[in-house]
Amino acid sequence: IILDQESGAAAYTFNYFVYVAVAVFFGTVCVWLVRTFAPYACGSGIPEVKTILSGFVIHGYLGLRTLLIKSLTIMMAVAAGLSLGKEGPLVHVACCCGNIFVRLFPKYNRNEAKKREVLSAASAAGVSVAFGAPTGGVLFSLEEVSYYFPHKTMWRSFFSALVAAFVLQYMHPYQTDHVVMFYANYTTPWHFFELVPFIFLGIFGGVYGAIFIKCNLKWCKLRKSTALGRYPILEVFVVTLITALCAYPNEYTRIGASELIAMLVKSCGPADHHNLCDYNSSATRNVNDRYGPVEDSKAESGVMHSLWMLTLAMIFKGFITIFTFGMKVPSGLFIPSMAVGACIGRIVGVGMQQLAWYYRDSGFFMYFCPTSAGCIEPGLYAMVGAAAGLGGVTRMTVSLVVIMFELTGGLIYIVPLMVAIMTSKWVGDAFGQGGIYDGHILLNGYPFLDSKEE
User: Fold this and answer.
1) Which residues is 373 bridged to in the sheet?
2) Contacts of 226 (CB under 8 A, 6+ apart)
3) What angle is formed at CA 124 by the lines to CA 122 and CA 125, rounded to 5 degrees?
4) Which of 90, 168, 268, 391 gives a 20 to 30 Å CA spacing to 47?
């Protein structure tokens, strides 16, 4: 508007400058608010919530000031374009609400055990709001957060997650026909031979998770033991500046991670004209061709260019998240981990789809793909890769499977999700026990006794 032109070098330079300036502004204001008014508002909050639910007391961590500052700064951190998510901090925010609410009832406020039952239900509600996954929220509270989870806490958590899902449906934040974040309406069923690439995605997720955990913990340990930890505002400023400068040139890192995942898990249709859906639908086709959908065609230069950009986006997000998670800003890890996995998943999916197209007349693919419904759905691979990436970092299993099919609405793809998530956990555990949250509990020296340890 200011330059009176939409394209060209001048418009690109101006947009680049505004993108970087806005990112640095939000990031700097975010860390200043956290450092000045509520130091406990930084980070994910899940390691500390786990520690509190195990019986330890962290005074002020679930207080009103922390709630207000974290609710405000979480929006700024996401708006700054940093490689982080809002889902983990929302669990912390929900627990703050639960802790403040129980003060109105002396029966719960004076009883630490009953108060922790409320916090378990609040964490389930937080995941329900963050993902639109009420059942997954209950299982997340059971598997990942809660130390003591009796039967009565189960149905109370379920009721809390249910109410949270109702409110989410009423607020209608995604402005779509569906309450889920990444709705996937695939018409192509998965085939038995695809378990091989699904297992490969699980192996990638486990290896990535193990590398990320080791590198992030080493960087956080360096931050705590050197002068770097005394300058959190400067650290956030530098990381935000580098993130913005490197993210803008790539169309897949310029947009938010949630938008990227939604794009990658989506199936291409006739109305999609971006590079990721640049298929030659008229190539060697006739009315009797077995391959009907747009994606079951020869990939053109746009798709190949997108694969290179997705590779760079995957490397960049995987690298920059190491330095972002643990800074003095609210920072979740769910969405960045899913974005890395979704990138490699879409790349593998396009490769499998092209393999099936080029050898569509072979006996193997004629056997598995005899109808005109198509054969390979690249978006499914992105969904499975996202689950594998998150599973490798957090080492969640049952709750992650449920969260993923609630996120996408893809209940019929539960077996590929289970295979990839279980593989990522096995591979990740081979390199080191415990997920990223357990690692940060040990790093911070919290007195946490894991009830799940043998």
Assistant:
1) 291
2) none
3) 65
4) 168
Provide the Cα torsion 43, 44, 50, 56; round to 10°.
Answer: 20
Token duo for residue 64: 């009103």
From the list 313, 248, 310, the residue with the least C-alpha distance to 274 is 310
Q: Which of 346, 381, 328 is nearest to 38 (CA)?
A: 328
Strands (E), 154-236: none
Buried b (16+ CB within 10 A) or exposed e, 212-227: bbeebbebbeebeeee
The tokens describing 172, both together, are 């209608």
Cα–Cα distance measured from residue 126 to residue 132, given in angstroms and rounded to the nearest whole number: 10
Which residue, 81, 121, 90, 140, is CA-closest to 394? 140
User: Which residues are CB-contacts of 441 (< 8 A; sequence separation ≥ 6)?
Assistant: 47, 50, 51, 448
Nearest to 279 by CA among 376, 381, 383: 376
0.85 surpassed by pTM: yes
Tell me if 136 sits within 8 A of 124, measured CB to CB: no
Q: How far apart are CA 397 and CA 197, in angstroms?
A: 19
167 CA to centre of own chain: 22
Contact 379, 346 (CB under 8 A): yes
Using DSSP's 3-state secondary structure scheme, residue 298 falls into: strand
Tell the residue number behind the tokens 């897949």, with chain if given: 252
User: Nearest-CA neighbor of 155 among 194, 131, 121, 182?
Assistant: 121
Of 319, 345, 321, 342, residue with least CA distance to 331? 321
Q: With both helix axes pointing from N to C terminus, report the angle between 9-37 and 232-247 in degrees, rounded to the nearest 10.
A: 160
Q: With 0-12 CB in 10 A as exposed, 13-18 as middle and 19+ as buried, what is 71?
A: middle
Angle between helices 378-394 and 195-225 (to 10 degrees): 40
Phi, psi of 163 (to 5 degrees): -65, -40
pLDDT over 90 (residue 151) = no
pLDDT in tens, 390-409: 999 999 999 999 988 888 77
pLDDT band at residue 447, thresholds of 50, 70 and 90? confident
202 neighbors 424 (Cβ within 8 angstroms): yes
